[in-house]
Write a structure and sequence with these properties.
The complex is a heterotrimer.
Chain A: H1 3-34, H2 41-58, H3 63-91, H4 96-117, E1 133-136, E2 139-142, H5 143-165, H6 167-177, H7 179-184, H8 189-211, H9 221-236, H10 243-261, H11 267-281
Antiparallel strand pairs in A: 1-2
Helix pairs in contact in A: 1-5, 1-8, 1-9, 1-10, 2-3, 2-8, 2-9, 3-4, 3-8, 5-6, 5-8, 6-8, 9-10, 9-11, 10-11
Chain B: H1 2-22, H2 29-46, H3 51-73, H4 78-98, H5 100-103, E1 116-117, E2 120-121, H6 125-147, H7 150-160, H8 162-167, H9 172-198, H10 208-221, H11 226-244, H12 250-264, H13 268-282
Antiparallel strand pairs in B: 1-2
Chain C: E1 5-14, E2 17-27, E3 32-36, H1 43-51, E4 58-63, E5 66-67, H2 73-78, E6 81-83, H3 96-103, H4 112-116, H5 120-139, H6 155-168, E7 173-177, H7 185-200, E8 204-208, E9 220-225, E10 228-233, H8 235-240, H9 242-250
Parallel strand pairs in C: 3-8, 3-9, 6-7, 7-8
Antiparallel strand pairs in C: 1-2, 1-4, 4-5, 9-10
The chains are: A mainly alpha, B mainly alpha, C alpha/beta.
């Protein structure tokens, strides 16, 4: 194994890691705001990526517009999802597994809808900064990958500030931690839940826009993305704000090193095994702070 | 068609039992279904062994795996457990593809012989039908027995109030593992039957989607009732075929049905049916 | 003779907060022992340590002469140490009768396989469990509601179901956590009578409560305050104790 190859796979690992981190961040956002594990987080990305693709390729509009529409599309799906499906289900007072089944069902529906309306073809978006790449010690980094890391980090920082500093961010947290208490001090709890889904959708849409130039958009991409994102979120600790980044990058690196040393077919096996092991031995994530709730 | 309903009922009952009686969401049934199917396929086509050996090896392997994996993961609960089983299904899907020396990879294994019973070949679907259904009924009967006996009560007690169950001397973790194993055995049995019926197995039959289908069958049918599972199995097999008439849109309609069932029929068809019957009797 | 339950220097802290400081007390076999204390005294923590839901940081719990600190909840239960919960934990979707049948788990022993195949032993055992459960319903006045789902009953009856379910398992030491909360005066009187009857049958009862009326049934009372036992003795003595008065009135 030579140094360049190793470095190359580290770069791939970090890039993928940030994608997982973004998906994981979306899952964490929804979980923190609603205590629901959203099994359709990956589908937000599917929708976001597709909308961006349609705007660029079919309408011929600039990439920036496409990216924004992709992100917004994710948000709209998230909001609609909460408003149309989660809220009526909540009124019936159902258990955890019902929400899981509900979100899984929606994941299926979106995947099936994409299959029906768009088809089986794979598509990909042009990257930010085109196909160009920079060289670091002979290892190539696509400009897009650099953008991906920078943009994701910015989003994570913004989210952190949003939750810590803004009134609405604090209200969203309060609504999920103590529903009744939040309601008595005048917080519109149902609205906060919708907003959590909206925010989760926006983050998911962004992940979709950023991942599409690297991985092709395909109607079946959602579920695996959700699982990897969940692994990232769990690895870092679901309630830890920066957990998803640490978890995502760790997962990405382990995966790409596994490809290097075992075989590419086992990449997902390694990731899923890691997910199971982490849940069992480190329920609070590798950063290990804060309590795990909802388990 | 109805043969598939029977096959899926057998494997689905395992999932339904876990969901309805233990409150455990298992998305790993495709793995055990696959183990049963590949065990039967490998034993009969590659080793030329007697067909029942495949059943036995599949069941033994599934039970062993269920103990090995179930022991650690059944300490988890709620979402975490569900996602652990989903991860397991993912792993299974990849390994069925990668271990091509055993499973034939994407090509699969063909030419699996039909079963014969006391010298009577189950060659036609009709004949197989008369074999599968008694097996399904037997399995249902066994579980009805369990529900009404010591461990059945303990299982439901554990579902409703785990801490109180522990106080009554019920070792909840061990009991969960036992039920998980029996669910895996059913999955494997269904898988072996499946392999002999379709005579060709490939990775496509044991994907995560299959696992989700098994879970759907439990949810749609109503996991709390045994009748419900059969209804659910009927739904999951008949519905897609019937919906195929609408063309490519059928998976979408299918998913919509699932969402509707979760939202409007929390007890599934079985529960709704039971309620309707009770109302009818009282009126 | 050594006591049935000996709590030796049990200490426990949560995130730096010392909830129990080297608590020691004995429960003699036979009779009713009370454990009282104001809110936040550490009663629940101590109770969870005795019943096995929590581990202590230091100290031992000795039951029937053996250190049971490392044993699991089901193991303690099988040895005869059974508890109830502050909010009654009935099996909500099971009927009252089925709740009591589940309570027979310890004294029956058929396995999952025997149950699956409805072996003769499994069937006769079920028959016996049914009979025992019916008898217990009779004893606790639950016969009229025995076919109703336990979760649908009012709070007072849920407590009775929980108590009957614990008693059907033939406990040696029965630990009751605030059994009178949510009961009206008439129900409390009924409960006191039931406890005295159980004690007369030979079951040792450890009663955790802050209800001064209920603990009248106890012959010895331990008072826990800020993680320490500050007084022990019969109720009349406790009432005179200066530290107890301060703890209750000064708080």
């Amino acid at each position: 194994m030579n140094g360049t190859l190793l470095l190359q796979s580290v770069i791939v690992g970090i890039t993928n890691g940030f994608v997982y981190a973004l998906v994981g961040l979306g899952i964490a956002v929804v979980f923190r705001g609603t205590r629901i594990i959203n099994a359709m987080q990956g589908e937000f990305s599917l929708v976001g990526g597709l909308v961006a693709f349609v705007v660029v390729e079919q309408l011929g509009w600039p990439l920036g517009v496409a990216a924004v529409s992709g992100v917004l599309a994710g948000g709209v799906v998230g909001f609609a999802m909460e408003w149309l499906l989660v809220r009526p289900t909540r009124r019936r007072g159902v258990g955890e597994e019902s929400y899981l089944l509900l979100t899984l069902g929606v994941a299926f529906a979106i995947s099936a809808a994409v299959l029906y309306f768009i088809g089986r073809d794979t598509r990909s978006l042009p990257g930010i900064g085109g196909e160009g790449s920079a060289l670091v010690f002979d290892a190539a980094i696509r400009h897009h990958a650099i953008w991906l890391v920078v943009l994701s980090s910015a989003v994570m920082l913004l989210l952190r500030l949003f939750y810590d500093r803004t009134r609405i961010g604090l209200s969203m947290m309060a609504a999920s931690i103590d529903e009744e208490g939040a309601a008595t001090i005048g917080i519109n709890v149902p609205l906060m839940r919708s907003l959590s889904f909206l925010l989760g959708g926006l983050v998911g849409g962004l992940a979709g826009v950023l991942v599409s130039p690297l991985v092709t958009i395909h109607y079946e991409m959602g579920l695996l993305l959700t699982l990897k994102g969940f692994a990232a979120a769990i690895l870092g600790g679901l309630l830890n704000p920066f957990g998803a980044v640490v978890g995502g990058v760790t997962l990405g690196l382990i995966e790409s090193l596994a490809v290097l040393s075992v075989s590419s077919g086992y990449k997902d096996v390694v990731a899923m095994t890691l997910l199971i092991v982490i849940m069992i031995i480190l329920p609070n994530g590798i950063l290990g702070r804060g309590s795990r709730k909802g388990g | 068609m109805l043969v598939f309903t029977g096959l899926y009922s057998i494997a689905g009952l395992g999932v339904a039992f876990l969901l309805g009686q233990c409150g455990i969401v298992s998305l790993a049934q495709s793995v055990f279904f696959g183990i049963g199917a590949y065990a039967s396929a490998y034993c009969t086509t590659q080793l030329n062994w007697w067909a029942p050996s495949g059943f036995v090896i599949g069941i033994a392997a599934s039970a062993a795996l269920a103990v090995a994996v179930g022991w650690p993961i059944l300490r988890l609960s709620g979402y975490f457990l569900a996602l652990a089983t989903l991860a397991l299904a993912m792993i299974g899907q990849v390994l069925f593809l990668e271990w091509d020396w055993l499973t034939g990879g994407t090509l699969g294994i063909g030419g699996i012989p039909k079963l014969s019973l006391f010298g009577f070949d189950l060659r036609t679907p009709q004949r197989f039908y008369y074999f599968v259904w008694p097996v399904a009924v037997l399995v249902l009967w066994l579980h009805a027995n369990l529900l009404g006996a010591r461990n059945g009560f303990a299982t439901r007690a554990m579902r409703d109030a785990p801490a109180a169950a522990a106080v009554l001397g019920i070792d909840t973790h061990v009991l969960k593992v036992k039920i998980f194993v029996s669910s895996a055995v059913l999955g494997s049995l269904g898988g072996s039957l499946f392999a002999h019926y379709v005579s060709f197995v490939s990775v496509d039959s044991f994907t995560v989607e299959r696992a989700i289908n098994f879970l759907l069958l439990a949810v749609l049918g109503g996991a709390k009732t045994i009748v419900g599972t059969v209804l659910g199995a009927g739904f999951v097999t008949v519905m897609p075929h019937w919906l195929t008439g609408f063309g490519d849109i059928h998976p979408l309609l299918f998913a919509a049905c699932l969402i509707a069932a979760v939202m409007f029929l929390p007890e599934g068809f079985g529960g709704a049916l039971q309620r309707a019957l009770r109302r009818g009797r009282e009126a | 003779m050594a006591a049935l339950l000996e709590v030796r220097d049990v200490a426990r802290s949560f995130r730096g907060l010392q909830v129990l400081r080297d608590v020691s007390f004995d429960v003699e076999e036979g009779g009713i022992v009370g454990l009282i204390g104001p809110n936040g005294a550490g009663k629940s923590t101590l109770f969870n340590i005795i019943s096995g839901f929590l581990a202590s940081d230091r100290g031992q719990v000795i039951y029937a002469g053996a250190d049971i600190s490392g044993r699991s909840v089901p193991q303690r239960s099988r040895a005869g140490l059974v508890r109830t919960f502050q909010t009654p934990q009935v099996f909500a979707h099971l009927t009252v009768l089925e709740n009591l049948i589940a309570g027979c788990y310890k004294h029956t022993n058929t396995g999952v396989l025997a149950n699956l195949f409805a072996s003769r032993r499994s069937r006769s055992e079920l028959h016996r469990m049914h009979a025992d459960a019916e008898a217990a319903c009779e004893k606790f006045g639950l016969t009229a509601v025995r076919h109703r789902p336990a979760g649908k009953l009012p709070g007072g009856q849920q407590r009775l179901v929980e108590l009957a379910r614990a008693v059907i398992g033939k406990p040696r030491l029965l630990c009751l956590d605030e059994p009178s909360s949510g009961l009206n005066t008439g129900e409390v009187t009924g409960l006191m009578a039931a406890l005295e009857r159980l004690a007369a049958e030979g079951i040792t009862i450890l009663l955790v409560s802050h209800d001064m009326d209920l603990v009248k049934v106890a012959s010895v009372i331990h008072v826990l305050c800020f993680g320490e036992i500050i007084a022990r003795g019969p109720l009349v003595e406790i009432r005179r104790d200066a530290r107890v008065r301060e703890a209750y009135l000064g708080a």
